[in-house]
Design goal:
mainly alpha; elongated
């Protein structure tokens, strides 16, 4: 009697196509803008309830921008397999520009000034350092 052995191949999971880096950057920037909107709403509620005074506005808006830029940078680092710092910085810069456009539309004022350049530079630094800290603890 002859024994036949069947070797069934294990089913392979289909590999997902890697997303283009531009789409990853855009998605990271949009998530950063959504996080920014959420934090701004929470801050507005805290102001409305008198939990925080109006003297905290400058520090709070700066902290919101930095945290959301770092968040966008961390999400954007997945754009490619290398140079995480560059993609994190680009994602946070794109976040800064999208947030400026969105909040300008919401407030119905569109004023270009040098403050926007400082916001972009601050976002680039936040995205860069966020990814570098992530790599340190990875």
């Amino acid at each position: 009697m002859q024994v036949t052995r069947t070797l069934a191949r294990p089913a392979r999971k289909p590999q997902a196509k890697p997303r283009p880096p531009v789409l990853v950057l855009l998605r990271a920037a949009l998530w950063g803008v959504l996080a920014s909107l959420g934090l701004v709403v929470l801050y507005a509620v805290a102001l409305r309830q008198n939990w925080l005074g109006t003297d905290t506005m400058g520090a709070a808006t700066t902290a919101i921008k930095v945290l959301c830029a770092a968040f966008a940078g961390l999400l954007a680092r997945r754009a490619t397999g290398s140079r995480y710092w560059l993609w994190g910085m680009l994602g946070s810069v794109l976040y800064s520009l999208l947030a400026f456009l969105l909040f300008s539309l919401l407030s119905q004022t569109f004023i270009l000034s040098l403050a926007i350049l400082s916001d972009v530079a601050m976002a680039a630094a936040a995205g860069l350092f966020g990814v570098l800290v992530w790599q340190m603890f990875k």
